[in-house]
Protein backbone atom coordinates (compact mmCIF):
# COMPACT_ATOMS: atom_id res chain seq x y z
CA UNK A 1 0.00 0.00 0.00
CA UNK A 2 1.26 3.50 -0.87
CA UNK A 3 2.07 6.04 1.81
CA UNK A 4 -0.78 8.49 2.26
CA UNK A 5 1.79 11.27 1.98
CA UNK A 6 5.45 11.19 1.03
CA UNK A 7 7.69 14.27 1.05
CA UNK A 8 11.40 14.20 0.31
CA UNK A 9 13.91 17.08 0.40
CA UNK A 10 11.18 19.71 0.01
CA UNK A 11 12.30 23.32 -0.46
CA UNK A 12 10.29 26.52 -0.74
CA UNK A 13 12.26 29.75 -1.13
CA UNK A 14 11.11 33.35 -1.30
CA UNK A 15 14.19 35.09 -2.59
CA UNK A 16 16.86 34.58 0.05
CA UNK A 17 14.32 33.38 2.64
CA UNK A 18 14.05 29.59 2.92
CA UNK A 19 10.57 28.90 4.28
CA UNK A 20 11.14 25.15 3.79
CA UNK A 21 14.70 23.89 3.71
CA UNK A 22 14.93 20.17 2.92
CA UNK A 23 11.89 18.74 4.74
CA UNK A 24 11.27 14.95 4.76
CA UNK A 25 7.93 13.56 5.92
CA UNK A 26 5.92 10.34 5.59
CA UNK A 27 2.32 9.80 6.76
CA UNK A 28 0.70 6.36 6.66
CA UNK A 29 -3.00 5.48 6.18
CA UNK A 30 -4.81 5.59 9.54
CA UNK A 31 -2.05 7.65 11.18
CA UNK A 32 -2.40 11.01 12.93
CA UNK A 33 0.77 12.98 12.26
CA UNK A 34 1.54 16.32 13.90
CA UNK A 35 3.60 19.24 12.62
CA UNK A 36 4.96 21.22 15.54
CA UNK A 37 6.97 24.40 15.64
CA UNK A 38 6.94 28.07 16.62
CA UNK A 39 5.25 30.70 14.49
CA UNK A 40 7.10 31.10 11.20
CA UNK A 41 8.53 27.58 11.33
CA UNK A 42 7.08 26.67 7.92
CA UNK A 43 4.05 24.59 8.94
CA UNK A 44 1.44 26.52 6.97
CA UNK A 45 3.79 26.90 3.99
CA UNK A 46 4.23 23.13 3.88
CA UNK A 47 0.46 22.62 3.92
CA UNK A 48 -0.09 25.15 1.13
CA UNK A 49 2.53 23.43 -1.01
CA UNK A 50 0.92 20.07 -0.27
CA UNK A 51 -2.50 21.37 -1.35
CA UNK A 52 -1.19 22.85 -4.58
CA UNK A 53 -1.75 26.43 -3.41
CA UNK A 54 1.96 27.21 -3.79
CA UNK A 55 4.62 25.64 -5.96
CA UNK A 56 7.69 24.15 -4.28
CA UNK A 57 11.13 25.38 -5.28
CA UNK A 58 12.32 21.76 -5.42
CA UNK A 59 11.72 18.35 -3.90
CA UNK A 60 9.42 15.34 -4.19
CA UNK A 61 5.83 15.31 -2.96
CA UNK A 62 3.44 12.39 -3.51
CA UNK A 63 -0.13 11.76 -2.33
CA UNK A 64 -1.07 8.06 -2.31
CA UNK A 65 1.82 7.33 -4.65
CA UNK A 66 0.99 10.07 -7.19
CA UNK A 67 2.42 13.57 -7.75
CA UNK A 68 0.34 16.50 -6.53
CA UNK A 69 -2.28 17.27 -9.17
CA UNK A 70 -5.99 17.18 -9.88
CA UNK A 71 -6.37 13.43 -9.40
CA UNK A 72 -4.32 13.09 -6.23
CA UNK A 73 -5.81 16.22 -4.62
CA UNK A 74 -9.29 14.73 -5.13
CA UNK A 75 -8.26 12.30 -2.36
CA UNK A 76 -7.47 15.16 0.07
CA UNK A 77 -9.74 17.13 2.39
CA UNK A 78 -8.42 20.26 4.08
CA UNK A 79 -9.31 22.91 6.60
CA UNK A 80 -6.76 25.73 6.75
CA UNK A 81 -7.28 28.51 9.30
CA UNK A 82 -10.88 29.54 10.14
CA UNK A 83 -13.40 27.78 7.87
CA UNK A 84 -14.97 30.05 5.26
CA UNK A 85 -18.73 29.51 5.53
CA UNK A 86 -21.83 31.39 4.36
CA UNK A 87 -23.51 32.73 7.56
CA UNK A 88 -27.02 32.88 6.07
CA UNK A 89 -27.04 29.21 5.05
CA UNK A 90 -27.76 26.13 7.13
CA UNK A 91 -25.32 23.24 7.46
CA UNK A 92 -27.50 21.19 5.14
CA UNK A 93 -27.56 23.92 2.48
CA UNK A 94 -23.79 24.42 2.80
CA UNK A 95 -23.05 20.76 2.25
CA UNK A 96 -25.47 20.46 -0.67
CA UNK A 97 -23.63 23.27 -2.46
CA UNK A 98 -20.25 21.62 -1.80
CA UNK A 99 -21.60 18.24 -2.92
CA UNK A 100 -22.56 19.80 -6.27
CA UNK A 101 -19.19 21.52 -6.58
CA UNK A 102 -17.28 18.31 -5.81
CA UNK A 103 -19.59 16.11 -7.90
CA UNK A 104 -20.41 13.73 -5.05
CA UNK A 105 -23.80 12.21 -4.12
CA UNK A 106 -25.97 14.15 -1.65
CA UNK A 107 -26.35 10.80 0.14
CA UNK A 108 -22.82 11.39 1.45
CA UNK A 109 -23.98 14.44 3.44
CA UNK A 110 -25.61 12.50 6.29
CA UNK A 111 -22.50 10.41 7.15
CA UNK A 112 -20.32 13.54 7.13
CA UNK A 113 -22.68 15.38 9.49
CA UNK A 114 -22.98 12.35 11.74
CA UNK A 115 -19.22 11.92 12.04
CA UNK A 116 -18.74 15.50 13.28
CA UNK A 117 -21.84 15.43 15.51
CA UNK A 118 -23.79 18.05 13.56
CA UNK A 119 -26.90 16.10 12.54
CA UNK A 120 -29.09 17.80 15.13
CA UNK A 121 -27.98 21.28 14.00
CA UNK A 122 -28.20 20.74 10.25
CA UNK A 123 -31.15 23.11 9.78
CA UNK A 124 -29.72 25.95 11.90
CA UNK A 125 -28.00 28.86 10.16
CA UNK A 126 -24.24 29.11 10.39
CA UNK A 127 -24.48 32.60 11.93
CA UNK A 128 -26.02 30.95 15.01
CA UNK A 129 -23.11 28.53 15.48
CA UNK A 130 -20.36 28.72 18.06
CA UNK A 131 -16.75 28.66 16.83
CA UNK A 132 -16.55 24.97 17.71
CA UNK A 133 -19.63 24.19 15.63
CA UNK A 134 -18.19 26.14 12.69
CA UNK A 135 -15.00 24.10 12.90
CA UNK A 136 -17.03 20.90 12.92
CA UNK A 137 -19.01 22.00 9.88
CA UNK A 138 -15.77 22.96 8.15
CA UNK A 139 -14.45 19.46 8.77
CA UNK A 140 -17.72 17.99 7.44
CA UNK A 141 -17.13 19.96 4.22
CA UNK A 142 -13.56 18.63 4.08
CA UNK A 143 -14.84 15.06 4.58
CA UNK A 144 -17.68 15.27 2.09
CA UNK A 145 -15.78 13.68 -0.80
CA UNK A 146 -14.54 10.88 1.49
CA UNK A 147 -10.83 11.75 1.30
CA UNK A 148 -8.07 9.35 2.27
CA UNK A 149 -5.90 12.19 3.63
CA UNK A 150 -7.17 15.17 5.61
CA UNK A 151 -5.09 18.25 6.44
CA UNK A 152 -5.97 20.44 9.43
CA UNK A 153 -4.26 23.69 10.42
CA UNK A 154 -4.64 24.52 14.14
CA UNK A 155 -7.90 22.54 14.53
CA UNK A 156 -8.32 23.37 18.23
CA UNK A 157 -7.45 27.08 17.98
CA UNK A 158 -10.07 29.18 19.81
CA UNK A 159 -12.05 26.18 21.08
CA UNK A 160 -13.15 25.76 24.70
CA UNK A 161 -12.21 22.55 26.61
CA UNK A 162 -15.40 20.77 25.49
CA UNK A 163 -14.77 21.71 21.87
CA UNK A 164 -11.15 20.54 22.11
CA UNK A 165 -12.23 17.17 23.46
CA UNK A 166 -14.82 16.80 20.69
CA UNK A 167 -12.24 17.70 18.04
CA UNK A 168 -9.84 15.14 19.47
CA UNK A 169 -12.54 12.48 19.23
CA UNK A 170 -13.30 13.39 15.60
CA UNK A 171 -9.62 13.15 14.64
CA UNK A 172 -9.15 9.75 16.27
CA UNK A 173 -12.39 8.51 14.69
CA UNK A 174 -11.09 9.46 11.24
CA UNK A 175 -7.84 7.59 11.86
CA UNK A 176 -9.83 4.59 13.02
CA UNK A 177 -11.50 4.51 9.61
CA UNK A 178 -8.14 4.41 7.84
CA UNK A 179 -7.96 8.12 6.98
CA UNK A 180 -4.51 9.70 7.30
CA UNK A 181 -4.63 12.97 9.28
CA UNK A 182 -1.96 15.68 9.12
CA UNK A 183 -2.26 18.38 11.80
CA UNK A 184 -0.24 21.58 12.08
CA UNK A 185 -0.22 23.13 15.53
CA UNK A 186 1.87 25.02 18.06
CA UNK A 187 -0.07 23.45 20.98
CA UNK A 188 2.25 20.71 22.17
CA UNK A 189 -0.08 19.31 24.86
CA UNK A 190 -2.92 18.82 22.39
CA UNK A 191 -0.72 17.23 19.74
CA UNK A 192 0.75 14.89 22.37
CA UNK A 193 -2.70 13.52 23.15
CA UNK A 194 -3.89 12.87 19.61
CA UNK A 195 -0.87 12.22 17.35
CA UNK A 196 0.94 8.96 16.66
CA UNK A 197 4.09 10.70 15.41
CA UNK A 198 5.27 14.30 15.21
CA UNK A 199 7.77 16.43 13.36
CA UNK A 200 9.28 19.59 14.84
CA UNK A 201 10.06 22.31 12.31
CA UNK A 202 12.23 25.32 13.12
CA UNK A 203 13.04 27.88 10.42
CA UNK A 204 11.91 25.47 7.72
CA UNK A 205 14.12 22.57 8.81
CA UNK A 206 13.25 19.24 10.43
CA UNK A 207 14.65 19.18 13.97
CA UNK A 208 12.89 16.01 15.17
CA UNK A 209 10.66 13.28 13.77
CA UNK A 210 9.26 10.36 15.75
CA UNK A 211 6.93 9.56 18.67
CA UNK A 212 5.97 12.38 21.00
CA UNK A 213 7.69 10.66 23.93
CA UNK A 214 10.97 10.83 22.01
CA UNK A 215 11.01 14.60 22.58
CA UNK A 216 11.10 14.19 26.36
CA UNK A 217 13.98 15.35 28.53
CA UNK A 218 13.90 13.66 31.95
CA UNK A 219 10.34 12.61 31.18
CA UNK A 220 9.19 16.14 30.31
CA UNK A 221 8.01 16.47 26.70
CA UNK A 222 7.50 20.23 26.89
CA UNK A 223 11.01 20.82 28.24
CA UNK A 224 12.45 18.68 25.47
CA UNK A 225 10.50 20.57 22.81
CA UNK A 226 11.67 23.98 24.01
CA UNK A 227 15.27 22.82 24.35
CA UNK A 228 15.11 21.59 20.75
CA UNK A 229 13.68 24.90 19.50
CA UNK A 230 16.15 27.00 21.50
CA UNK A 231 19.13 24.92 20.33
CA UNK A 232 18.00 25.26 16.71
CA UNK A 233 17.51 29.01 17.12
CA UNK A 234 20.99 29.39 18.58
CA UNK A 235 22.46 27.48 15.63
CA UNK A 236 20.65 29.72 13.15
CA UNK A 237 21.95 32.86 14.81
Automatic annotation (TrEMBL):
PROSITE patterns recorded: ABC_TRANSPORTER_2
Keyword annotations: ATP-binding, Nucleotide-binding, Transport
SMART domains per UniProt: AAA (SM00382)
Keyword ATP-binding: yes
Annotated family: Belongs to the ABC transporter superfamily.
Superkingdom classification of source: Bacteria
Protein's name in the database: Lantibiotic ABC transporter ATP-binding protein
An example Gene Ontology molecular-function term: ATP binding
Domain ABC transporter residue range list: 5-228
